[in-house]
Amino acid sequence: MEAIKKQATKLREQVAKQQQAVLRHLGHFSNEDVTVDEADLQCHQKLQDLYSSTKAAKHLQRNIVRGIEGFIATSSKLIEISRKLADDCCKFGVEDQNTGSSLAKAALHFGNSHKSIEDERETLLGILGERVSEPLRALITGAPLEDARHLTHRYDRFRQEVEAQAADVLRRRSKTREADISAESYMKLKQAEARLADLKSSMMVLGREATAAMLSAEDQQQKITFQLLLAMVDAEKSYHQHVLASLEKLHAEMILEGQMNESLNSVTLQREVNVTSAHDNFSSNKSEAQGSNQSDVFFIAKMGN
User: Fold this and answer.
1) For a tag site, which of 94, 171, 180, 244 has the least CB within 10 Å?
2) What is the DSSP string of 136-152?
């Protein structure tokens, strides 16, 4: 649609230039008041650039909103799954806590840590939805940009009227000759020229208003969108920092539990070795004592005989 509008504008300008060339060739009347001046061309080009810029930024805003909505939907499901896992781990840790096993303690630490992580994720989603997505949605349909675009559309319609009126003035001038001009034709020409002057004056005023409004809307659009993107990055940074801290703490707790378990197993094994060794020594000493007693009895019996 934008390409068609631009092509139509170019065609109208070409027709106007051709008409002006015909009049210059005929040598009748000055056409300076009919031609499109440089200020109008600059204003028109500036509005076209602003319209394209705000349109592109608006598409970016919509893409961000859609992306956040999809991220929230996916993350909400992930929160549900992760919390179920955390609850299961906590349940195992609590039920087996009396056994004092390292696995039970590690599972309890894991569950509590991931509950905290999912709470942080939920906070992140709230920030993205309430402080980023909703303001962007309001900005997309906000009054400043829509009002500025309305002024731009009015300017375009005025410009078309000016072009049509200029063509009418050129047509009347091309049919008029200084020698045989009638009073009626002369009056109609003057009326057409006066209307053209009024339209051009109104168009220039409206062009300035539309340009100022579009510049203001573009500036607001750029600044607020940038601020909201920065807020989204800040929220993600805070979330990941909390997650990293929770995982570092969980990792340290699990490593400590593993080391304590290994140390406990080592002490228990050593005790079992000591008990076995003591038992073996006791059995050996008892056997030797029993052998010595039997030799003494045999010797006494022999002496008695």
Assistant:
1) 180
2) HHHHHT-HHHHHHHHHH
